[in-house]
Amino acid sequence: MTREGVVPGVRLRRLDEEGLERLLALAVADADPADVMPPGWEVDRHDEFRRFYRGFLRDAYEVVDGGRTVGMARLTAEGEAGLWLARAARGRGTGRAVVRRLLEEAPGRGVRTVVASTTTGNVAAVRVLTALGAELEVVGGEVSARIAVPTDPPSRRA
């Protein structure tokens, strides 16, 4: 990790058909089905997974860490963001790195504010959003977050 707590090798790769198959394998092997797709998906329903993700390929990224697929992230033209990570990729700063990468992608998509939704029970996500300066609104158990996209390019450290 860097001093800012971000895993330096984490990058986003546009999701394509090959990446879709890597994500499916990861979802089956090392993810909570409820994180991967709307509730009700089961790991043996591969065609349903493919149809779901093909529906937003233009907004989706494969999360890659050290050459391995570790999750999925999305960023729509309206600024809506979301992600899921394999269990093995959690707790190491990967989520924070992914959100930073999405913030770097946002200006190229014309996005000035990134919005995300989670629940109060998703403590890790709330921590990441708070650490990155998100404005949070909590209603019941639902959390809505807004992060202003930095207008200056991120500084690169040697």
Automatic annotation (TrEMBL):
Its EC number is 2.3.-.-. GO terms for molecular function: acyltransferase activity. Keywords: Acyltransferase, Transferase. Residues 10-150 form the N-acetyltransferase domain. It holds the Pfam family Acetyltransf_3. InterPro entries: Acyl_CoA_acyltransferase, GNAT_dom. The keyword Acyltransferase applies. PROSITE patterns: GNAT. It comes from the Bacteria. This is GNAT family N-acetyltransferase.
